[in-house]
Design goal:
The structure holds 2 protein chains of 2 kinds. Chain A contains 9 helices and 5 strands; from the N terminus they run H-H-E-H-E-H-H-E-H-E-H-H-E-H. Chain A is an alpha/beta fold. In chain A, helix 1 runs antiparallel to helix 2. In chain B, about 30% of the residues are buried. The chains are: A alpha/beta, B mainly alpha.
Amino acid sequence: MGNPFRSEAEAFRFLLGAVVYFAAIAIAGVINAWAGLAVFIVLTVGVAWWWWHTRQHPVPRQVAPTRRSAPGERRLLVVANETVGGADLLDRIRELSAGANTEVLVVTPALNTKLRHLASDEDPARAQAQERLERSLQRLEQEGIEARGEVGDGDPLQAIEDALRTFGADQILISTHPEGRSHWLERGVVTGARERFAVPIQHVVVDLEAERELEGRS
Amino acid sequence: MSAHAEASHAGHPPAAHQSSRVDARTLGMFLFIASEIMLFGSFFTIYFFVRVSAGTPWPTPPYELPVFVAGMNTIILVTSSFTMHWALQSIKRGNRAGLQGGLVLTFLLGLTFLLTQILEYSRIGFAPDTDAFGSVFYGLTGLHGAHVFVGLTLLAAATVRAFRGHYTPESHHGVEIPGIYWHFVDVMWIVVYTTVYIL
């Protein structure tokens, strides 16, 4: 159970639940005061257990973009942290942009430590993400790809959801380091995104170390 | 070809970071409702103190509470939540007549509730200054009545806008937000009715 007043429909369902809850207590209470107390305890424990259970196992919600792109236009949402300048990702962006008027939005999540997040100390994380984003955008510009960027929420999935609400992507590209070196893969960001968003998602693995080695040799 | 980062605005304060976990307007209403729950909570604290700790008889003899009339009023108010929900579902499906009908019915049902409560006050036989029981009864039901009045004002505005052709299936926050408030008012009445009239 989330915020019951998040939407009118959820508030209405909450009202129906309240009617049932209080009607059961009132009916039992009128029959016998102890029965009323027993029903109150049983129902309250039941609601608390249900709330705890649904909190532990949230049902993934499918989020779709709120805006759709015009015919002949394509919107590409790129979610990347350090890997946005990787050759594989640039190739994939170029491939997807070919033959259409493509708008590219790069979102860099402001990754933060749990402690700083709890202390609401977001500024250094956002400043670092901004720096990474600007470097990434310069790299894209050098490659001839027109793009704009945003610093997103520290949680990559939340950052994607936020961007989808305003950007309305046709395709999402999630760029990560290879398995074993990627925290995002370890945390199941790509799998989570596929469950949560009703938009085609491509996962691009960027091996920056291998690219640097290649550059060094040549 | 140009690339730029949106967050850099020289000469202007940076744009506020807004997460879309909850829409800002809905979040505003939620925070308002949270503060309202605290307000009602303070009134319920007085109620439980008077009734449980101070041991005041409820209701104080020889007075009696109009349980049946208030029960009918409860049914009216709960029904108004159904019509409110119907109104919103209608506009989401592009049914303007359903929106208008739902809002008018919700307003009329809410008005009936409020007028019945005023009539009940005039016949009940005790006043807020009669004793602690009277003060708590009028305090709780009056606080709720004030909320119904606010809800009716919001509904009146939404109804007028609905008849002027406002709201679309994509944009109907002006109905959704009063709807959330109206359901909150109903939930609070169920709590008030159960504790004050029945138990």
